[in-house]
Amino acid sequence: MTYQAIAFDLDGTLLSSNATILESSKKAIKLAQQKGLEVFIVTGRHHTAVRPYYVELGLDTPVVCCNGTYLYDFASDRVLASNPLSSVQVAELVSAAKAEDIHLSVYTRDAMTYETLNNHFTKLLKWVESCSEEVRPNVYQVEDFQQFIDNDTTIWKVLISDPDVQKLQNFCRKLPFDQVSAEWSWVDRVDITAKGNSKGKSLAELLQIEGISSKEVIAFGDNFNDISMLELVGMGIAMGGSEDDVQRAAKRTIGSNNDDSIAQALVELLGL
């Protein structure tokens, strides 16, 4: 099979447990680029939280962000396609989550915001401070999310998190799924976006723009929000330790994100 592109999820996949890209993966990606393959990042992250890795890899392709909520082009700082939440939806989500004492983060057009710190954002801010200033993600605290609702600010997603997974599951069961989509992006975090958004749908749109058949794409993922992407492409690859549903959606399962498994798979599939 001839492949034209590779799509990578970040957390739990291309990134190791300490949030770095393995040298073996970087070398394999560079060799793939030299063979003419395009490399795409397909992530639940905001684009400013992608930038450090995007620059590290020397990419120039659009990025699928916030689980397919928008396609972002770094070169022009332009959103190529999007389906954000409405202000009414954001207001309802914020109110409902606060009533259940569930931690919230609101992802706006240009930043990731929070009202109160939790363990996740404490770790995130520590990573942000470790990034070089020129690629540092935009994360900040706000007094009240209501300012975004009142100003009709573009909101890509609302992230909810809680150490009590059952609490999150109960909250998600009550969501209006005729209006929103919910994707588990980590064991204790759920990304809520406008209905219909998914990594697979947005990647398909990006591939159409680029003139690439989905069957000529290799994709790597590890979580539930990657299933639509893994099912879309010609070679969907699940990381070792993924949930059974994720592995079933993939054509093969490889080793851990902390091992050289991505590099080994690319060497085999691309003859690097």
TrEMBL record:
Any GO molecular function: magnesium ion binding
CDD domains hit by this protein: HAD_Pase
PROSITE patterns found in the cross-reference section: COF_1 (PS01228), COF_2 (PS01229)
A GO cellular component annotation in the UniProt record: cytosol
Alphabetical list of Gene3D superfamilies matching this protein: 3.30.1240.10, HAD superfamily/HAD-like
Superkingdom assignment: Bacteria
Protein name: Pyridoxal phosphatase
Organism name: Nicoletella semolina
